Amino acid sequence: MDASLFPLKFCLMELKKFVNIIVLALLLLILITVSVFLFRDWRASQRPEEAKEISAEVDNSVDGEEKKKDQPLLMVYDTLPDNDKDSDGLTDEEEQKLGTDKEKADTDNDNLSDKIEVEQTKTDPTKADTDGDGYGDGLEIFYGHDPLK
Questions:
Q1: Which of 50, 98, 115, 122 sits a CA distance of 20 to 30 A from 83?
Q2: Helical H runs in 46-143?
Q3: Per-residue pLDDT tens over the stretch 111-127
Q4: Which strand (E) or helix (H) includes residue 59?
Q5: 142 and 82 together in one domain
Q6: Has residue 67 got a pLDDT over 50?
Q7: Residue 106 sits in which domain range?
Q8: What is the rounded CA–CA span in Å between residue 87 and residue 36?
Q9: Would the pLDDT of 63 be above 60?
Q10: Rounded distance, CA 3 to CA 83, Å?
Q11: Alpha-carbon distance 100 to 91, whole Å?
């Protein structure tokens, strides 16, 4: 073996090891990514198939004739009480009784206003995840799941 080629062969062997390490790292990264997506799909499949649809019973009186029909959640209120600092539809006194923040329309930051949680969804306006399953109330309603189960 020619002694002058030894450093070149040594460099090629080291390069080959380096390439093998990079390939293994990429394969490991792909495996982890696929595993995460499979786990998320599996976790979603563990949720109840027939999620209870949540809607609110609202009184729509017209000319004294009372009509009731289902309305979608997250309704817009035409009038707000005068003593409602956060404009969520609950008076400051109601917020104090409920333990909610009268300065924030959504005390628990779950994307449902305090009034909607109290009057429509019956969820806890001070807890972002009323049923404690790891999914916020607003997210569960958005995806058609029951935030109380």
A1: 122
A2: 92-98, 114-116, 137-142
A3: 888 888 888 889 999 99
A4: strand 56-59
A5: yes
A6: no
A7: 71-149
A8: 41
A9: no
A10: 92
A11: 11
